[in-house]
Amino acid sequence: MTSPIVRFAPSPTGRLHVGNVRTALINWLFAHSRGGKFILRIDDTDLERSTKEYEDALRTDLTWLGLTWDSTFSQSHRFKDYDAAAARLKDMGLLYPCYESADELERKRKIALSRGRPPVYDRAALKLMDEEKAKLEADGVKPHWRFKLSGERVEWNDLVRGPQSIDTSSLSDPILIREDGSYLYTMPSVVDDIDAGITHVVRGEDHVTNSGAQIEIFMALGGKAPEMAHTPLLIGADGQGLSKRLGSLSMTELRQQGYEPMSICSLLAKIGTSDNVEARSTLAELCAEFDFAKIGRAPARFDEQELKNLNAAILHALPFEAVKDRLAAVDARAADEAFWNAVRANCSLLPDVAEWVETVFGDIAPIVAGEDKDFVAEAAALLPDGAITGETWSAWTNAVKDKTGRKGRGLFMTLRKALTGQEHGPDMGAILPLIGRDRVLKRLGA
Ligand code: GLU
Prior knowledge:
This protein is an alpha/beta fold. 46% of the residues lie in helices and 12% in strands. It is built from 18 helices and 12 strands. It has helices spanning 18-33, 52-65, 79-91, 102-114, 130-138, 186-195, 208-222, 251-257, 261-270, 283-289, 304-317, 320-330, 337-343, 353-361, 373-381, 392-404, 408-420, 428-443; strands at residues 5-8, 37-42, 71-74, 95-98, 144-147, 153-158, 162-167, 175-177, 200-204, 227-231, 234-236, 300-302. A hairpin with a 3-residue loop joins strand 6 (153-158) and strand 7 (162-167). Helix 1 (18-33) crosses helix 10 (283-289). The structure holds glutamic acid.
């Protein structure tokens, strides 16, 4: 197979969320696993709803995720090409003017349904004589334009869904151009895909029906259609659609919460596939494992808890150098290699370090039960002299054990609660040197 050229085509009308990022990721992984190219196309033909702010944000989000593009262009710069394509379709008799108002179409739809017929556009406009059209236009009625489907079956072998067959006689001829002359998404997408040499159209399965019409437009304008892959949609852990929660699942939001890009990519690359969901530290690893054949047909389950678990796993493996600046942004005291190495196993999200900064360096409230007071004072007296190092904790607790006879929980948990004010936390051996002699003694009440 020659190297694929794919595109991700978001509309800059909102923030990128886990659903569209999954589409971007699958395109990116496919292209990069085959030495291909990944194009970012901005679908901004809807000039009213598209904003520069959303466009900038989606570029920022993709860059943050590592999903960089080989080239990019915006549909709003290509209206001339769409006009040319529309003119060609009109010449071929495949794009015809219709004059029905929205109300009229709705009435026709209801009548069809009440007679038990599918609500398919009846092509009445095709029967209009030239004089009738001229009269309508003279009356100021502006046409919208429909693509004339063949009425045959359109078939393709979908890389995810297998053999597909869409009976275009069961579809309404799609409107390509609105009354005001603006383009709907359907035709510009095809024109762009042809001009960009797109070899594979990879997108969500909500576009399967579009593909029926678009393949016919591809055939009319370019002679052949690209390969197609339609991936099942995402659902939440509760089995419900994600649409209502997508705002909180935007990349902007997840980034602000402190998620690592690779935990998002690790999860989105694997849910709904036959591979296990596991943390991966590079996109290259995900590329090596990518295969359309692994993507199943059932909806892919997106579970935020699973994302958090992956994030924790990724943080545990992140070296200090990789997080230094972000730690400093949370708290200057967190930007310390020994501190990071001590606490990273206890963080699900990087900002969780703030809690451990307090535990280690802050003013904590030691927990010492009444009956432990003497024990804790005795332990304080046994703290080895000299600098506190990585070995101090075990040497010290051995000495305390020998002297007091306490062991297990009664020894370790009592000291942990006195020294950190908590029952759980990072390895005491690793944080003791960071807490330091003065704070250790103070917390022990010595
Ligand atoms: N802008 C379209 C969408 O976001 C692109 C669909 C496609 O990939 O063809 O749904």
